[in-house]
Amino acid sequence: MLRTSTVDGFVLLADRFGEIHKRVTLFTEERGILSAIAHGALKSAGRLKSLTELFLYGRFSLYADPVKESLKITDAECLRSFPGLRTGLRRFYAASLFAEIVLKSFGGGEAGRDLYALFRETFFRLDECPEPDVIHLVLGFIVTFLDLTGFELRGDACEICGRSIGATESAYYVKRIRGFVCPACRREGGVEFSPAARNYYRRARGAAAGDAEDLNLSDRALVGFKNLLYLVLQESLERELSTIATGKGFL
């Protein structure tokens, strides 16, 4: 591996490292998730201070230290800073959720390049997205992420009795069996997957990121579908997402 390299990527995390340095986590197309140290990035006059801010999209010059087995950011160029994320809480929490999904899926694994393309397209749209439409970007991102990682919401047949669930019936996702049941077999809670939400899901799978806001869905059905996606998303990752908990009321 060459000791010096250049990558384009997004800053997903930027934590204090020592007194004046930052540990920066980047999401890149070519190399997935990278962790690198930006020396002096916490100095008030440090060049890398503003170039390693959270969610910045930039071009980073890296040095691989063969002794310490670590990466160092030696220089950076801002390609886009996304000012809209700092003027709207919904946009900020949405960006945080996208970043957490990438981190907790380890960059999407084998689907890493496709996830990077999805992340980049959605992030660019999020920066200028009206606050009321942010939820559609979030839902579209999760639907596509689940597709990329092999999780499909199958609400057309009951996992218990096997019968088809009609187009005008609700299906119910039961966490215990990790599948859907019909109304007749629903003997416990379950999260509703309404006919309107199933239609939204089918159409959202074929829509470009964020275009699902053009699909008609009542507020009640939208909330129900959102809760279902959050549940299935966290089950697919086999871990809870802190952004969903802390962003309640905004996401």
Key phrases:
251 residues, alpha+beta, OB fold (Dihydrolipoamide Acetyltransferase, E2P), de novo design (two linked rop proteins), 2 domains, 3-stranded antiparallel β-sheet, 6 helices
Q: Can you offer a commentary on this structure?
A:
The structure is a single chain. By secondary structure, the protein is of the alpha+beta class. It has 2 domains: 4-81, Nucleic acid-binding proteins (OB fold (Dihydrolipoamide Acetyltransferase, E2P)), CATH 2.40.50.140; 84-246, Recombination protein O, C-terminal domain (de novo design (two linked rop proteins)). 32% of the residues lie in helices and 24% in strands. It has a 5-stranded mixed barrel. Strands 7-6-8 form a 3-stranded antiparallel sheet. A hairpin with a 4-residue loop joins strand 6 and strand 7. Helix 1 packs antiparallel against helix 2 and helix 1 (89-104) runs parallel beside helix 3 (134-148). The N and C termini lie far apart (41 Å). The mean pLDDT is 92.
SSE topology:
Elements: E1 4-17, E2 21-28, E3 32-38, E4 57-65, E5 70-80, H1 89-104, H2 112-126, H3 134-148, E6 171-174, E7 179-181, E8 191-193, H4 195-205, H5 219-237, H6 242-246
Parallel strand pairs: 3-5
Antiparallel strand pairs: 1-2, 1-4, 2-3, 4-5, 6-7, 6-8
Largest sheet descriptor: 5 strands, mixed, barrel
- The total of beta strands comes to 8
CATH architecture of the largest domain: Up-down Bundle
Q: pLDDT below 50 for ≥5 consecutive residues: which ranges? A: none
Taking all residues together, what is the mean pLDDT? 92
The CATH superfamily of the largest domain is identified as Recombination protein O, C-terminal domain
Find the CATH topology of the largest domain.
de novo design (two linked rop proteins)
